[in-house]
């Protein structure tokens, strides 16, 4: 016996066509509006086979919710890959209006703290299959010679001793990069950097103010040098209703990149969280994404898919060490005000992290609003930050779940179309 999947979502695509998407399988098909999904037993053989192939029809006895939860747990709990995020400082060379961190008088990691971080790396490496270290902040390049270089050299030495794989990444504004820094990074397993632009040259320079340089021009020049050294860059473009139409400088720059450079560059277009969303803003953001893809560069928006593309903070073996030694799970917090999970001084920091992780798993899957929700595989009760910050057990992230379903599905469909368009252009 078969049944329709509880995670099927049917949403209009045009006047005559609907999209049927399954949030568990991440598959979709286009259907004529006049096709009615009757009782499973009454479907034609061809339609029944198509739906079954895309897991939109499933065995009657299958507990889909349990299957999704088990799949999620395997991904967050089973691996021995450790992801360590380190904040050398919360200071920054810019003062962006939307930033939630307080850069004034921010703590810089001390020599003693640096040694404690090294010892923590020692304890992780013995049980890890791989170790990924990412530098965050503040602006991590402010402490490149004092903190970043020593930690990279030490981590490479330790992982080589135990024959473990190591890689490094950065979240940075990219302004402080120098040729010497880039040479060092290219020679030390630095595979990836995320760098931000705030619209085109005029908009960006009004947000990221430099008294001596054109910050936009400096940053895109540095990005080119990273690409030339085979370091992948995700360019995060922060958009607002005011700057989303002022991105022609970015597009013109992208058009001038070489094929080899474009293959190492991706663009992530993100709405600045303090600004209001509207249909017009969404349309303009989609147009920007389409323009970037036409340049031959992969472009994607913020897409919620916590089953297949889960947030790093949801994973058991990911944690953040702040410059003062406090340990967090998420970087999207005010480190001075947010409550930490534990700290590097605690002899039982691993046990404390593990206990809180298990408590949040129980809370995540006790939420009764999720039991019959069709977008549960995409949402999974929200990311770590949403889960930890909500005092209620039974809550929902959306005021209008039906509207959320439509928006989520359409963002996924558009992203898939852009990927296909980019792949076809390379054939």
* Approximate shape: globular
Q: How many distinct beta strands?
A: 15
Low-confidence stretches: none
Average pLDDT value?
Answer: 94
**CA radius of gyration:** 23 Å
Series of secondary-structure elements, N-terminal to C-terminal: EEEEHEHEHEHEHEHHEHHEHEEEEHHHH
- Strand content is 15-25%
Largest sheet: 10 strands, mixed
Structural class based on helices, strands and sheet pairing: alpha/beta
Give the CA-CA distance, first to last residue.
43 Å
Report the helical percentage. 25-40%
Q: Helical stretch count? A: 14
Largest beta sheet: strand ordering? 12-11-10-9-8-7-6-13-14-15
Account of the 3D structure:
This protein is an alpha/beta fold and 427 residues long. Helix content is 39%, strand content 19%. It is built from 14 helices and 15 strands. A ten-stranded mixed sheet has the order 12-11-10-9-8-7-6-13-14-15. Strands 2-3-4 form a three-stranded antiparallel sheet, with helices on one face. Strands 1-5 form a two-stranded antiparallel sheet. Strand 13 (318-321) and strand 14 (326-328) form a beta hairpin. Helix 3 runs parallel beside helix 4 (144-161). It is globular. It starts with a strand and ends with a helix.
Short description:
Helices cover 39% and strands 19% of the residues. It has 427 residues and is of the alpha/beta class.
Question: How would you describe this structure in keywords?
Answer:
427 residues; alpha/beta; 10-stranded mixed beta sheet; 3-stranded antiparallel beta sheet
């Amino acid at each position: 016996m078969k049944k329709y999947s509880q995670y099927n979502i049917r949403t209009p695509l045009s006047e005559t066509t609907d999209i049927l998407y399954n949030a568990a399988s991440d598959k979709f098909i286009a259907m004529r509006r006049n096709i009615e999904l009757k009782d499973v037993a009454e479907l034609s053989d061809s339609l029944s086979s198509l739906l079954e192939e895309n897991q939109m029809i499933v065995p009657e006895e299958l507990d889909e919710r349990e299957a999704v939860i088990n799949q999620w747990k395997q991904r967050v709990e089973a691996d021995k890959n450790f992801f360590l995020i380190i904040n050398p400082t919360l200071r920054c060379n810019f003062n962006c209006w939307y930033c939630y961190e307080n850069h004034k008088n921010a703590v810089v990691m001390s020599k003693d703290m640096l040694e404690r971080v090294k010892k923590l790396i020692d304890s992780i490496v013995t049980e890890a299959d791989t170790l990924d270290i990412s530098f965050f902040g503040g602006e991590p390049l402010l402490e490149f010679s004092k903190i970043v270089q020593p930690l990279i050299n030490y981590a490479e030495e330790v992982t080589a001793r135990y024959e473990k794989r190591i890689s490094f990444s950065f979240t940075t504004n990219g302004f402080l990069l120098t040729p010497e820094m880039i040479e060092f990074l290219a020679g030390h397993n630095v595979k990836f950097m995320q760098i931000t632009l705030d619209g085109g040259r005029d908009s960006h320079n009004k947000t990221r103010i430099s008294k001596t340089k054109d910050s936009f021009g400096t940053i895109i020049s540095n990005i080119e040098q990273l690409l030339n050294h085979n370091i992948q860059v995700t360019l995060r473009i922060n958009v607002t209703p005011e700057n989303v139409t002022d991105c022609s400088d970015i597009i013109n720059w992208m058009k001038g990149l070489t094929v080899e450079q474009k293959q190492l560059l991706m663009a992530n277009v993100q709405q600045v969280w303090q600004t209001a969303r509207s249909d017009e803003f969404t349309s303009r953001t989609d147009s920007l994404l389409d323009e970037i893809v036409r340049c031959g560069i992969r472009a994607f928006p913020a897409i919620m898919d916590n089953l297949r593309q889960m947030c790093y903070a949801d994973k058991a073996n990911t944690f953040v060490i702040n410059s003062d030694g406090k340990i967090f799970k998420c970087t999207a917090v005010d480190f001075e005000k947010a409550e930490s999970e534990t700290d590097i001084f605690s002899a039982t920091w691993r046990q404390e992290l593990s206990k809180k992780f298990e408590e949040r798993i129980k809370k995540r899957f006790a939420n009764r609003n999720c039991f019959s929700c069709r977008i549960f595989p995409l949402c999974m009760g929200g990311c770590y930050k949403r889960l930890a910050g909500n005092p209620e057990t039974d809550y929902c992230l959306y005021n209008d779940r039906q509207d959320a379903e439509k928006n989520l599905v359409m963002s996924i469909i558009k992203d898939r179309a852009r990927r296909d368009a980019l792949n076809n252009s390379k054939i």
